[in-house]
Write a structure and sequence with these properties.
Layout (H helix, E strand, L loop, with lengths): L10 H33 L3 H8 L2 H27 L3 H28 L3 H5 L7 H12 L2 H16 L4 H21 L2 E5 L2 E6 L2 H25 L16 H35 L2 H14 L4 H19 L3 H28 L1 H6 L5 H15 L2 H16 L4 H25 L3 H26 L2 H5 L4
Antiparallel strand pairs: 1-2
Helix pairs in contact: 1-8, 1-12, 2-6, 3-4, 3-7, 3-10, 3-12, 4-7, 6-9, 7-8, 7-9, 8-9, 10-17, 11-15, 12-13, 12-16, 13-15, 13-16, 15-18, 16-18, 17-18
């Protein structure tokens, strides 16, 4: 097993891993930093503005999960074809990925536009929030086709071994969003004697800014995939649906989409538990802790993108040793990195929480939640990375089952027990979450070390 290989013997693999990982890690960090600034810019509008944007978070995460599943369905096939040195197959899958992204985006757009006013109301938006929330949802969803293209072709490019282009386009998306926010959210105002023009559209301005920036990034990202060196293709070669490719995409992508949906719905349930069973301070602390904790595992997502590409290409090349080695290396490096970030999270929980709120009670509760979950971060990192490695090896159902079991058989019932019976408050919610994350990591490690994925990948008959 590759786990027994010494790191010093892995020089070429480590260099290749690093070349794919660093752009993805930087992309995750920059996107998170920009999202914090974006949240602060909307927050200037007051509680109504913030609520109008945040209430639409869960349904947007849900559709992003579906689109990410489409991305998995086609990008894994592309990584396999790249590894097999089959450029014609790569070009075929790229064209089918475009067709699927457009269809997925159109269906989502039609559905969400029809339900645009109802979704915020179902999620508890107050009467004063509802009109702005409905407008935000409708504007955002008007570009779901482009959002789908951006998500799918970012995944496609990464699995072709190009992680720098998604870094450029996704970073540009967020920076353009901030610039447009500056001019569209706020009215014309004076700053140090200088008149700054502004549309004063508030929440709706934030939605328009997001829609424009997504569109401006999606088009060049799609064209970049179509013109990737060695795999250039053209729309003129045809977009007729290809049954075998589509069926393979459904087999690979649906479990991933279901997993994301399971986790997102569980997160909504946990937020509802905090909102209904605990104090307003606890709800604020929960949001702050969630935001702060996200910094801890950002490297894991970047390494995970490299894992799915490298394992997928190794599977396509029929190289069992490389596939095992890349999965083991990425998992070990992710665990080690998040041991460091988890330790820092534990030690600096209070200063980190205080960056987002000045209320002493809120900061104290958020810091306690962060210290509880800090112990689980290395295992969460491993689950993120090995889930991607398993997908690259065509083992897509196991991560789905792990997500289902962890969320609905561990986190939700255990958190309810600790909060409602043992009265542990917000710490109980995060303790349930920590147990879930540790279990996911342990199960993914077991699955990878067991080698059962080899048969699904075709590397072992």
């Amino acid at each position: 097993m590759a786990a027994t290989l010494k790191i010093k013997e892995q020089g070429p693999r480590l260099r290749r891993l690093w070349s794919l990982s660093w752009p993805a890690i930087i992309e995750q960090i920059l996107n998170t930093m920009v999202s914090y600034v974006d949240t602060a810019m909307v927050g200037v509008l007051g509680a109504v503005g913030s609520a109008a944007v945040s209430v639409n978070g869960p349904p947007i995460w849900l559709i992003h999960g579906v689109m990410a599943g489409v991305g998995v369905g086609y990008s894994v096939q592309i990584s396999n074809a790249v590894g097999a040195r089959d450029p014609e197959r790569v070009r075929q899958v790229i064209r089918q990925a475009f067709l699927a992204a457009v269809v997925c985006g159109l269906v989502a757009c039609g559905l969400y536009e029809a339900l645009g006013a109802s979704i915020p109301r179902w999620l508890g938006a107050k009467p004063e929030v509802l009109p702005h929330a409905a407008n935000y949802m409708r504007i955002y969803c008007s570009v779901l086709v482009f959002n789908s293209l951006l998500i799918v072709f970012s995944a496609v490019l990464r699995c072709m071994g190009n992680t720098k282009t998604p870094l450029i386009f996704n970073t540009a998306t967020n920076l353009l969003n901030l610039i447009l926010n500056f001019f569209l959210i706020y009215p014309t105002r004076e700053w140090h004697g200088l008149m700054i023009p502004g549309a004063g559209w508030g929440v709706e301005g934030a939605a328009i800014a997001t829609a424009i920036s997504i569109t401006c990034a999606a088009i060049p990202a799609t064209l970049a995939a179509f013109h990737q060196h060695g795999y250039a293709t053209s729309f003129r070669e045809g977009l007729r649906p290809d049954g075998p490719i589509i069926r393979r995409a459904v087999t690979l992508g649906v479990p991933s989409a279901i997993e994301r949906a399971i986790v997102n719905i569980g997160q909504i349930a946990m937020t509802a538990l905090v909102g209904h069973a605990l104090t307003t301070a606890a709800l604020a602390a929960n949001n702050i802790a969630t935001t702060a904790e996200g910094l801890c595992y950002l490297p894991a997502y970047g390494i995970g993108y490299a894992a799915i590409a490298l394992v997928g290409q190794s599977v396509g090349a029929g190289d069992k040793e490389d596939a095992e080695a890349y999965g083991t290396l990425t998992g070990a490096i992710g665990f080690a990195l998040c041991m460091v970030t988890g330790t820092l999270l534990f030690l600096f929980a209070t200063p980190l929480a205080s960056l987002f709120n000045s209320d002493a009670q809120v900061v104290a509760e958020a810091a306690l939640a962060l210290r509880v979950v800090a112990f689980a971060e290395p295992f969460f990192a491993v689950s993120i990375i090995l889930t991607n490695a398993l997908r690259g090896a065509n083992d897509v159902r196991f991560p789905m089952m792990v997500g289902l079991a962890g969320m609905w058989f561990v986190r939700v019932p255990l958190s309810c027990l600790l909060v409602l019976v043992f009265d542990l408050g917000l710490a109980g919610v995060w303790a349930g979450m920590a147990v879930d994350l540790i279990l996911r990591g342990v199960l993914c490690i077991w699955r990878w070390k067991s080698g059962r994925w080899l048969r699904l990948s075709g590397l072992e008959k």
